[in-house]
Design goal:
mainly alpha, 73% helix
Length: 453
């Protein structure tokens, strides 16, 4: 009995099932690449069940199945080596026959160029063991690797929102689970995450490391946090920025977050001037609506789903601004979200400025310097958390208005019955109390409506 207390059966099952997935991947890819992808995705369904997510198994399972279906479609239609970075990452798989050949090379690169190290050997330290231990050489195998990382992203986002989210909800007893479900399902169905996890690229790993670093910092696991941040910084120079963004969000340290934002904006102003601040403000909005829906070329089949996601996020942005203006309970969360988004935008603008000036190109208003669909990925969990929060408050607003209408209709019937019982004419000098409230006027207590401003 005492031994059972020290053994988490769920973790043991997860570990055992992970080993089964690895062995299956090795066997299936040796037989047929496409068959292995289908089989692997099917075997991920029980893996999902072991995660212990919110008490909505049918809805979550349907969403997870849709994620795997989307991954299968992207695997069949998208080339995992779509760009120069993807090609360079895969070249390491074909260049080094054994892991024992790659690791000394990677360590040498880290030791000699740690101030300006390339992400190629750093990312290789993570995916090369997967390829070499399983003796894989097909670039499609990265989809298996990235799909597991995607599951970890959604799992970490769920854990943070379930245990650490402490901002005001409209109805804490009944709204918390819908908020968590919306944020989790949004990440599972995100076309951006589906697409980027189908490429031989580091972006999905960067998102996971940002969430993982924030979780370790929240749990005060200092040594592991330092290791994760150092590794993630080797992949992206500004990894500490979005890692701290998640940390500030869940600790509600608004003053510290504002201080970091002012420091980032000050550095941006010193390097670029007012133009940098303007571009950071524009980019804060563009992080929601990229790919740009106004650009008709973004509605082609290849970009359609990601453009629809941008439209959805644009609507969420407008709803959030409205709720922050009208409902004071939401302002603490939205202020924090705005500070974090702008801080991250300052980091991206500065990186883009360095890239553009290094290529001796012109820099002006609206100049970003890189693929923002790719760069927005690290804060996508934050954006979907904003989406869950906004939609939960929309649900509350509709419920309140529905209840108000029901209450006024009940009062209307009651007062009409009293008038009929008393024999008073309906066109008397005094209007019923409900008449003024239905007209939008103030009641006897001097208040109109349910707004808190």
């Amino acid at each position: 009995m005492q031994a059972d207390r020290f053994i988490d059966s769920r973790k043991v099952m997860l570990l055992g099932y992970s080993v089964l997935l690895i062995l299956t991947a090795k066997w299936a890819f040796a037989a047929d690449e496409k068959l292995s992808l289908i089989l692997y995705c099917g075997l991920l369904l029980p893996f999902f069940v072991l995660m212990r997510w919110p008490n909505a198994p049918v809805l979550l399972m349907v969403s997870f199945t849709a994620t795997l279906a989307g991954k299968a479609i992207y695997a069949a239609t998208v080339n995992p080596l779509a760009g120069p970075d993807e090609i360079h990452y895969y070249e390491q798989v074909t260049t080094f026959e054994k892991l024992s050949q790659f690791m000394p090379y990677a360590m040498e690169q880290v030791q000699n160029g740690w101030m300006n190290i390339s992400a190629y050997p750093v990312f290789g330290m993570l995916y090369m063991p997967f390829f070499k231990w399983l003796e894989l050489d097909d670039p499609l195998a990265i989809i298996l690797f990235n799909t597991v990382i995607l599951i970890l992203i959604v799992n970490n986002a769920y854990k943070l929102n379930e245990s650490r989210f402490a901002y005001a909800l409209p109805d804490p007893d009944n709204a918390r689970q819908p908020f968590i479900l919306i944020s989790v399902i949004g990440l599972m169905l995100s076309p951006s995450l589906m697409y980027m996890s189908s490429l031989f690229a580091k972006d999905i790993t960067c998102v996971w490391l940002g969430l993982l670093g924030a979780m370790l910092l929240l749990r005060k696991r200092w040594l592991l946090f330092i290791i994760v941040v150092l590794y993630s910084t080797g992949l992206r120079d500004y990894a500490v920025i979005y890692t701290l963004c998640f940390y500030f969000l869940y600790t509600q340290r608004i003053r510290t977050a504002i201080g970091v934002m002012l420091a980032a904006a000050g550095l941006l102003f010193m390097q670029i001037g007012p133009l940098g601040i303007i571009n950071a403000g524009m980019l804060s909005v563009f992080l929601f609506i990229s790919p740009n829906p106004i650009n008709f070329s973004n509605w082609e089949p290849e970009l359609l789903l990601r453009t629809l996601e941008a439209v959805f996020m644009g609507i969420i942005l407008m709803i959030s601004v409205y709720q922050a203006i009208v409902y004071k309970e939401t302002r603490k969360f939205y202020l924090m979200a705005a500070v974090l988004i702008f801080t991250y935008a300052c980091a991206l603008v500065l990186v883009g400025y360095v890239t553009i000036t290094g290529r001796e190109l012109d820099y002006g208003v609206g100049t970003i310097g890189d693929n923002m669909v790719r760069k927005k990925l690290p804060v996508l969990p934050l954006i979907y958390t904003i989406s869950g929060y906004a939609l939960v408050w929309c649900r509350k607003i509709f419920i309140l208005k529905h209840r108000k209408i029901q209450l006024l209709e009940a009062e209307q019937k009651g007062e009409l019955q009293q008038l009929n019982t008393a024999g008073m004419p309906l066109g008397g000098t005094k209007s019923p109390a409900w008449h003024g409230r239905l007209a939008g006027g103030k009641g006897d207590d001097g208040h109109a409506g349910t707004r808190t401003t």
